Amino acid sequence: MREDTIMVIGAGQMGSGIAQVCAQSGYNVYMYDVSDDQIQKGMKRISGQLVKQAEKGRMPHQDVKRIYQRLSPSASLEDAGGAFLIIEAAIENMDVKKDIFKRLDEQTEEGAILASNTSSLSITELASVTKKPQNVIGMHFMNPVPVMQLVEVIRGLETSDQTYDAVVTVAERLDKVPIEVHDFPGFISNRILMPMINEAVFALYEGVAEKESIDGIMKLGMNHPMGPLALADLIGLDTCLYIMETLHRGFGDDKYRPCPLLRQYVSAGRLGKKTGKGFYTYGGN
Ligand SMILES: NC(=O)c1ccc[n+]([C@@H]2O[C@H](COP(=O)([O-])OP(=O)(O)OC[C@H]3O[C@@H](n4cnc5c(N)ncnc54)[C@H](O)[C@@H]3O)[C@@H](O)[C@H]2O)c1
């Protein structure tokens, strides 16, 4: 196990962003995904981002190659054995994440930290499938990872202070601001954000206003940098639906009922920016 090596599980928009900031901060990074295509796309996304930053004068051009070389695509969870920290950023599904955590538990050394970038799922439940629940923690990055400052750090029931302190140190080295919360559905960020997005989808569904008007009102009237429907497209409508389902199930309160329109879009494969179509249509994706 090496103190300079992190493994990221999932090479989607969040996993590739997390891998990028880790490599930029000097860590060696394995990036794993079940889909080889996603790994290739993730590596391409990272190199594009690094080049863009160099072109904007935010880093010297010679750093691009140096940072990129710290990244290793991985096709095997066995690589986790070489990492002191594993950050899981696979799809927002408890069964998928539990399976990953169970396998990571077998592949990693005693002191390795198993973190999840889950947006809403119970860290305590994820930890329960491992033999080291004291080493399991939530490390919730925001999208887009290279831009957003916050890392919401979620303590599970058994998370040790040592694990918490280690993760805070890593987050600070990544130039992020860690803020601690306890393990409740949606934590703080998505307990507050996602019902607002869901309400915006209900307003569209009920014909209260056009999508551009809903987003325009929230941007101009509330000073939000982007409207809730555009933000839902950025997050991914599948992820939004999973989070609402977790809130609905977790609190048993119908105020968290996912809007049927959100469900319909997800069923149709309209997942937002990542598939080229959600509430809006995106080119070149
Ligand atoms: N999208 C956001 O704005 C956002 C923000 C914070 C946290 N998150 C969380 O980050 C996680 C990933 O979200 P995303 O937006 O990157 O989704 P995404 O759809 O872009 O990527 C998910 C990736 O997980 C991979 N995957 C599926 N099953 C896997 C498995 N068994 N092992 C390894 N990889 C697997 C998929 O191939 C895909 O590449 C989710 O838990 C999500 O809730 C998302």
Write structural notes for this entry:
This protein has 285 residues and is an alpha/beta fold. The protein folds into 2 domains: 5-182, Rossmann fold; 190-275, N-(1-d-carboxylethyl)-l-norvaline Dehydrogenase, domain 2. It has helices at residues 13-24, 36-55, 61-68, 94-107, 123-127, 161-173, 189-205, 211-222, 228-235, 237-251, 260-267, and strands at 2-9, 28-32, 71-74, 83-88, 113-116, 136-141, 150-155, 177-182. An 8-stranded mixed beta sheet has the order 3-2-1-4-5-6-7-8, sandwiched between helices. Strand 1 (2-9), helix 1 and strand 2 (28-32) form a beta-alpha-beta unit. Helix 7 packs across helix 9. The structure holds nicotinamide-adenine-dinucleotide. Residues 9-15, 33-35, 38, 89-92, 96, 100, 117-119, 140-143, 235-236, 239, 274 line the site of nicotinamide-adenine-dinucleotide. The site of nicotinamide-adenine-dinucleotide has 28 residues, from helix 1, helix 4 and strand 6.
